[in-house]
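Archive transcription. Copying these from loose printouts into the bound notebook so they stop getting lost. Printout 1 of 2:
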Amino acid sequence: MTAQVPTWFGVAASVALVALTAVVAWRGRLGVTREVVVAAVRAFVQLVAVGAILSFLFDNAGRLGALGWLSVMVSVASVEAARRARGLPGALRTAATGIGVGAATTLGILVVLQVIATDPRVLVPVGGMVVSGCMQVAALVLRGLRTAAATQRSAVEARLSLGLTAAQAFAPHVHDTVRTALIPAIDTTKVVGIISLPGAMTGLILAGVDPLTAIRYQIVVMYMLLAAAAVTGLVTARVGERALFDEAQRLRPVAVG
């Protein structure tokens, strides 16, 4: 059985869902109505453009093109994650390092173990899922570091005055930040298949693949995202922590805006 794919009219009709979201945000005075509309418009334009690019990529560019597109994904994700932590020293570099290491490590292991193929039609979509998960974790870690540095300055400086190193003085906040950032990935892994049928599995089922086959793929995806979140969270926290202190191990000024 072939799954029914929405027509462009169906896509246009789904704009009603965006309108509903905007109304909820407006009525609730959440202050994100404009951001919701902008996000929806960006998603439409970006997906149409990406669809055209991927069609060309899959037919002509090969593995080198796939790696290039993954690099673009990491770059855009880094900018977006850093944008959520304005005022944090070295936010963009920290985000890029965390997301890049997390994505490269996870995808590298799966490729080496021959769990996934290096064909662009596999590598690009799977890489996109990994980079997206890494971006979310990096953003949470960066925001957590910024908040801790701005609100817990006195506690950090008190530990520094007792002779602790910068890493030791800031360690409790790093641990809390990374732990908090990993909660969504851990909780999602716990309830997968019970509360939700995630994207990879749903897509395969809609395409007519046997559910047990789709489940195998989804298990790999969930473990992949969990590992990517852990690596990204740890690397982002460590790099961000170093950027918060100067050469004399003094905490740099950070503003939460």
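Printout 2 of 2:
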Amino acid sequence: MTRVLLVDDDTNLSSMLAEYLVQDGFEVHCVEDGADGVQEALSGRHSIIVLDVMMPGMNGVEVLRRIRAKSRIPVLMLTARGDDVDRIIGLELGADDYVAKPCTPRELAARLKAILRRVESGGGQRNLSEPVEAGQLRIWPERRVAEWGGCALELTGTEYNLLEVLTRNAGRVVSKNELSEQALGRPLVRFDRCIDVHVSSIRHKLPDRSDGQSWIRTVRGMGYQLIRE
């Protein structure tokens, strides 16, 4: 059974979400403050974390920062509707996705399943044991490992998914909707900057080209392209 850690000081909301998730086949453990959230997240007992941004004391952004310093466990952030600042900061720190509050339990469950599908399936591609290569970039889907010039890249689960899709399509422009469907497991939502923030993070983890430009090219109005050497 998939174990979900729900970190939120709103006990009424947590109880409601937990009840639905349990009925949907998840096992849920709730904690009400950030410090306990960090401890539980790093315990190894959970498959995925649902983390509220707005909590007293240690907020969700700091909790995520501490988790990402030691773990790549998938994290879905709960953010205030329309609060782009917290949302973008969370993604930049390595959150896999976010849901705006108030959210329906059904939407939350669907997002959790989408993230877990991507992690567990290794991208859902065939020939998982064979590396996928584009220049100095090499990816092993079976192990979900990416290397540049023989050096491992430290990627979150969602960053890995995006980079795998771009690598498999190196030289071709991949639309944001295609990236969202294949890497996040959900259709692209209007005004959703999740893909842009994750791609920006990946760019910072790759070396620059000889001309100082990024290996991932933005094609305005279309999507992104991984440049072939």
